[in-house]
Amino acid sequence: MSQEIQAHEGWIRIVRFSTDGRLLASAGEDTLIHVWEVQECDVMSTREPDDASSASGTAVHSMSGLALDRGKKNSKKKDNSIPSYVNVPETVMALSEKPCCTFKGHQDEILDLAWSKSQFLLSSSMDNTVRLWDIESKRCLKKFAHNSYVTCVQFNPVDEDYFLSCSLDSKIRIWSIPDQHVVEWINLLEMLPGFQSQPQSKKVTCFQFAPWNPSEVLITSNARIRLYNETELIQKYRGYRNTSSQISASFTRDGKHVITASEDSQVYIWKVEESKNCLGLHLVIATAWGLVIVTATLDGEIKVYQNFGLPLKVGRQTTLF
User: Fold this and answer.
1) Are 27 and 12 in contact (CB under 8 A)?
2) Cβ pair 61, 67 in contact under 8 A
3) 215: Cα separation from own chain's centroid
4) What's the pTM value of the predicted model, to 2 decimals?
5) pLDDT tens sequence across 178-237
6) 40 burial class (0-12, 13-18, 19+ CB within 10 angstroms)?
7) What's the rounded Cα separation, in Å, for the pair 226 and 240?
8) Rounded to an integer, what distance in angstroms lies between the CA atom of residue 88 and that of residue 94?
C-alpha cells in the first residue's frame, strides 16, 4: 500500500475515477461527495524514506526504504540501491491530501457515482434522488426524484444528454437530462436471463457499459456479476462474496479486466480477454502487474495500492497476467 487517507466519516460506498483519470470522486454514509485530484509523484530512489513523499506531503510508498531496511539487516552499510528484480516506474500515482471540492445536498447515504466525459458528475442516493453536479461551478445543476432508493446510475455512453438509473424495483429508467423526465424504462427481471430464477439477484448494485462496445453491459447484483450483450448472457464472473453489501464491479480503464471488492475482505480481478471465451471461468488473481488499485473502507479510509512488479511466488496460482 502506498497511500492512506481518512476521507469520510462512516462507510464509503463508492469511489469513481473520472473518464480522463485525473479526478477521483468518493461518497457514502456521511452524504458528502469529495473530489480528489490524481497526481503523479516522482520516485526518488536515492532519497531516505522520510523524504520519499511528494512536495505536497502526500505519502508515497518508498521503494528505497525497502532497500535500506534490507541493508540494515544484512550489513552495517546503508544501501540506497533498488534491487534489480523490482520494477519501479519513474512516477507513481497519488491522491491530493485534501479534496479539491466537496458537494453537499443529499439527505441520506450515497450509493453510486458516475462521470461524464465532460466532467459532470451524477450521484444516486437512499434519499430517492439522483443529482447532477458541475465540477467547474461546484454546484448542483439538477435533481431527479425517484420512488425508492437509487442503487446505481450511469451516463448513456452514446448520448450524455441521457442517463440510466436503477432502483430497488429492478427497473432501469432512461432519463432525459434537459427535459428532466423518464423517456423509457426496462425491467431487468423480465429482460435478462438469470434474474427471474434468482430472488437474491434482484437488487442491482451497479451496471457499467463496456469500453469497447456500448451494447455490452456489466451488471452487479447481490450475488452475481454478469456481462451481457443486449439480452444475451456472455460471461459469469464467480468467486467473490456479496450477500448484503453495496458492492460494485467495474472494468479497469483499459477494459482488459473486471475488478470488484468482496465481503471476504479480498479484491477479485478477472482478465476479460480470457474469460469472454469460457463461460463460468473462475479467476482469482493475486498479482496484477502494473495496476493501481484504489479501495475504500467501512471506516471512511481510501487506500491506494501500487504494484511495482515484484516477482513473488503466488502459492499454487499458475494463471498470471
Assistant:
1) yes
2) no
3) 21
4) 0.74
5) 999 999 998 876 766 555 555 555 678 888 888 888 888 888 877 688 888 887 888 888
6) exposed
7) 12
8) 15
